[in-house]
Amino acid sequence: MCLLRTNSFGWKWALVVGAAIFAVSCRSKIAEPGAGQTPTAASTPSAATPRKQTESSLRSVWGSSPENVWAVGDEGAIAFFDGKAWSDKPSGTKGNLASVYGTAANDIWAVGDSGTTLHFDGSSWSATPGEETVRLLSVWASGPKDAWACGVSDESGVLRHYDGKKWEDVGIGASSSLWKVWGSGPTDIWMVGSDRSGGGFVLRGNGKHFDRAPFPGKALRAVWGTASDSVWVAGYDGEIHHFNGKTWQLETTLPNAQLLNLWGSAPNDIWASGLAGAIFHSDGKTWTKVPSSTDKVLWSTWGSSSANVWAVGPEGTLLRFNGQKWRAE
Fold first, then answer.
1. Max Cα-Cα span within the chain
2. Is 138 in contact with 111 (CB distance < 8 Å)?
3. What are φ and ψ of residue 114, in 5° steps?
4. Is pLDDT above 90 for 267?
5. Which residues, other chains included, contact 47 with Cβ-Cβ below 8 Å and sequence gap of 6+?
6. What is the C-alpha separation between 61 and 311, in angstroms, rounded?
């Protein structure tokens, strides 16, 4: 990997339930937070991580094809993979970016601190400024005129919608955070986080109206699915639940796993990642821990197939799965 941006600035990150916002250096040792807190991006350098020219913390990865992959992170860092090599791209912002998602190579969104929203039209990124108090944590879209972003503001959940012209706030129930958004289509959108008591908060909508969906577990950090009747959610306590269209079922509790992300290519090919380089795989029957070659936080995973999956983390960490094992790029 060869990125041009250098960055030693730590990201101020929100605590999910009632704690104060604090700052950490990207070079400091990671402090293992409690279940009600948001983990920081810092971690102890791993001997398995190769030399890099960047220290930017990468928070999210998404692509439209194996030759069109994007990763975003701290201080507006945006990296692009063309199928051969990674390179930095100008973002037009210094704000920390938390999530990237698109519907095509010329329709990509990135969101982050201060309510920042960026859009890529195939040639350049353009920024839309937001409020200082809003921290957007996730974005998902079904098309050029339908995008959703969620996050937190003053310890309250935030949900916003883009209709092709502008972003607008959408009212939701009492939540302290909304961490991730995913949809099976424009009329089936899911968001997860925590409510004010620390329980799991699941919001489901048809694109116009949203209701809180009953959920029996603890605070949630990730959501992903294959259809409206097949949705997985994961929590910081290592629990993974599955929704079968009618009820939630506890699929597994992974020991010592603080999970932050879910992604899969099919119901029998799902990845979960989180703190300390933890990464797990499901073949549709059993969840298994897979060596990741790093001890850094793995914030996000995405792949073009079961044999081509990316994971990103602090200090420019980029891992790639080739169908057999993970290795640092």
1. 49
2. yes
3. 60, 30
4. yes
5. none
6. 7
Query: For the chain, which domains are there?
Result: 58-328 (2.130.10.10)
Selection from 257, 220, 210, 265 nearest residue 242 by Cα: 220
Contact between 141 and 102 under an 8 Å Cβ cutoff? The reply is: yes
Tokens, residue 242: 């599955």
Both tokens of 161, joined, read 């919608």
Distance from C-alpha of 190 to C-alpha of 117, rounded to nearest angstrom: 20
Strands 188-194 and 177-185: antiparallel
Rounded Cα gap, residues 202 and 139, in angstroms: 16
Sign of CA dihedral 180, 159, 315, 235: negative
pLDDT tens digits, 163-191: 999 999 998 866 778 999 999 999 999 99
For the segment 130-147, what is each residue's pLDDT rounded down to a tens digit?
667 899 999 999 999 999
pTM of the model: 0.84
CB 48 within 8 A of CB 293: yes
Q: How is 68-88 classified by DSSP, letter by letter?
A: EEEEEEGGG-EEEE-SS-EEE
Determine the Cα–Cα distance for residues 73 and 312; give it in Å rounded to an integer. 9
DSSP state of 179: E
